């Protein structure tokens, strides 16, 4: 039987095997939620890069550029890390370069996988339907926060495990832990996460609407997939 595993932070990725595995990267607040939204609104591609300097170089080549550090937009770039920024006509058909504190780093670290998919609650059902047709094992890579575990990405991992548990065996305790956490909180994720560190961080910036938006399930039927150095939308 196929297996599903969960890596709680990219700092633990060296303990896992990603070869012959499909990796689903989750940075719920907010990078992967932004990416899914951008493709739903017609972006052509998103090139995720680990550093601000790499993002600036692509900006100089004509890309729309998004840069975020510590949940704030970096000065000198067009786009920030709010999904509402990507509900805009200038996104349609554009090539975007993006760097974020956690999410883009997690994607760039996953390149040796069979496929790298971008996951969020927003496209959870699309991810589930696709994975059920695949023959490979799956690993959910939680972007976390600066190498540390966070609750929102772990809950996404648990949601994916729950929906795939009849098709995939839980490989390690991390998958069981994520699944049980999601089972506890799924009826009211906002309340369940009330004291989570990144919730508090975003609330201090006055962007509660981003929190509520990113926790919605199954809004979009899109799956961003890494092709070479860029994310494109996979037909589902």
UniProtKB/TrEMBL annotation:
<keyword id="KW-0460">Magnesium</keyword>
<protein>
    <recommendedName>
        <fullName>Probable 2-phosphosulfolactate phosphatase</fullName>
        <ecNumber>3.1.3.71</ecNumber>
    </recommendedName>
</protein>
<dbReference type="GO" id="GO:0050545">
    <property type="term" value="F:sulfopyruvate decarboxylase activity"/>
</dbReference>
<comment type="similarity">
    <text>Belongs to the ComB family.</text>
</comment>
<dbReference type="InterPro" id="IPR005238">
    <property type="entry name" value="ComB-like"/>
</dbReference>
<dbReference type="Pfam" id="PF04029">
    <property type="entry name" value="2-ph_phosp"/>
</dbReference>
<dbReference type="GO" id="GO:0050532">
    <property type="term" value="F:2-phosphosulfolactate phosphatase activity"/>
</dbReference>
<keyword id="KW-0378">Hydrolase</keyword>
<dbReference type="GO" id="GO:0000287">
    <property type="term" value="F:magnesium ion binding"/>
</dbReference>
<dbReference type="InterPro" id="IPR036702">
    <property type="entry name" value="ComB-like_sf"/>
</dbReference>
